[in-house]
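User: Could you check the structure of this?
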Amino acid sequence: MADRRDDDLESWAGGRVEPLPPPPGTFELIRRRARRRKLRRLAVSAAAAAAVAAAAVTVPQVVSLRPSPPTAQSQAGRAGPAPSATPATSRAGSAPGGATGTAPAPGGPVPPGFRPTSVTFIGTRTGWVIGQAGTPGHCATRYCTSMARTDDAGRTWAGVPAPLAGPPAGPAGVSQVRFLNALDGWAFGPQLFATHDGGRDWTAVDTHGLRVTGLEAAGDRAFGVFASCRGGWTAYAPGCSVTLYSSPASGDQWAPVGAATTGLAGGTRAPLVLTGSRGYLLAPDGTLYAGPAGGGAPWQQAGRIPCAAGQAQAGGQPAGALLAAATAADLVLVCAPPGGGAAPVYTSDDGGIDWHSGAAAPGAAAAAAASPAGAVVLATSQGIDVLPAGSGGWQAAALDGQAPGGGFGYVGMTTDEQGVALPADPAAGTVWFTFDGGLSWHPSAVAGPRG
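Assistant: Sure, the predicted structure tokens are below.
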């Protein structure tokens, strides 16, 4: 007789099996757990990306010069009241490009008796001037070096922090300023100070005894001319030599650019010009060097200029040759007038390899500038001369009022239309502006409260 249990098993195995339903809430629990796993994976991915970005900006770099230990280089570093805690090219040069980054808030009143020696602009509205202000012994500190800033193209000015340094005296002091953007700037000549917070704080950079005679910045780098002299410092002696240094703009990691631009003998005067992508250095012996403004490669000899380079002279008189750049390849050279006559002018459209004679300037000039459109502007002891783009002759620029005594010592173009100029005598206390390509100029007094 068959076993009944075997019949029941066969009946169960051959029948349809109905799965039991899951307990209530099971599917919702599965969905919540899946969401948590997805969020954890996203968090891990984001953390990994942040780590990669951090590694990209913390790669160590070889440095040759180091900043001095940070000091309080700001609030009291100018004559007059301390500022709020939230606060072209210049004769020293001008920084091309627009303002970027976080800028300090407006400062306090401009110190009385401001005598600007250098001006620098980022874009068309924001600029800084540096100079001496007040009366020695009655300044905010024992230094009277002061700075002011405008954010409306010279209509108003405000006093802002300055480096704790006096005017140039032997190895100490500063008289020039450059800003690349709203954060990175430098005061120099002959010492070197740097700011990376828009001028709130200034830190002295140890140059190991070298003196900074020129500095310009473009892209994300700064370039400086560092001078040394055998047997001590003699500003105009031929026994001096210069070396081109460079540093990332956001740091103070100065190092020589290369062998070709190291130890250039013949004096301390070496005009330095930067465009957006290329830079030029005119050595004391008349050799022209060129290289990328973005760094990454040493500069090399580009050619020689067709006149004597000349030595800087005491009292700020014109030297042998003035160099300006309209674009990365288009250069303008103004030579010292032989015997005091008209000044020979040369142009190059291939970066200084070949030079072509142009319209001679009416006389000697202390500074030259070229706009991207091709206009050339000269600062002279009489006023300002301009050679408009496409014109065959020079003309005297129209001045709003009388020319300052001694004329102008610096001129620079920030755009095709806008430029700035400084009187040869800082006691004038003004910065002059053009908004029509150099044809007419208007003074702005660096004085008064911001408002």
